[in-house]
Write a structure and sequence with these properties.
This protein has 148 residues and is an all-alpha fold. The chain is 66% helix and 0% strand. Helix 2 packs parallel to helix 5 and helix 3 packs across helix 4. It starts with a helix and ends in a 10-residue tail after the last helix. The relative contact order is 0.18.
């Protein structure tokens, strides 16, 4: 029924998230992070929103905290694309100083610290949510219930 379809969709999303992380790396810990596809990046927030449509998987404060972290990455990505004139998601070293100044940071280090903080928050929330989903999908007692 509906629970089986929702479980299948959620399982597929979780597998896609893991594969993307292996390819793009850690947004919080790379010198040149992929703001969209990296672990802790914007796509992780998108995946959580899609999974949330199937089952409630986020906890109370997660939504507002994710929104704040997402806005940091989005601002950096939009400015990066504005400055380069390209649809790029990787914040390379040479672009970081100009993006930092345009966004009102004192410099590259402050920008990258803000991005690292945001990406760690997204990654932690994502890992926690997908862990709870994984446990719930293995338990016949939890299927069809909220996971948050």
């Amino acid at each position: 029924g509906t629970d089986l379809v929702q479980s299948s969709v959620t399982t597929t999303l979780a597998a896609n998230v893991e594969a993307r992380h292996l390819k793009a790396g850690e947004a919080a810990f790379l010198l040149e992070p992929d703001l969209k596809e990296g672990r802790g990046g914007m796509r992780d927030v998108h995946s959580l929103v899609w999974a949330e449509a199937a089952h409630r998987i986020l906890l109370g404060a997660d939504v507002s905290e994710l929104a704040i972290a997402y806005s940091v990455l989005l601002a950096a990505r939009v400015e990066l694309q504005r400055q380069t004139g390209r649809a790029t998601n990787v914040l390379v070293l040479q672009e970081q100083p100009d993006v930092a100044v345009a966004l009102g940071y004192s410099g590259r280090d402050e920008l990258m610290a803000g991005i690292a903080d945001a990406a760690r928050k997204i990654a932690w929330t994502s890992d926690d949510a997908w862990r709870r989903v994984s446990v719930a999908l293995r338990s016949p007692f939890v299927r069809g219930r909220d996971l948050g």
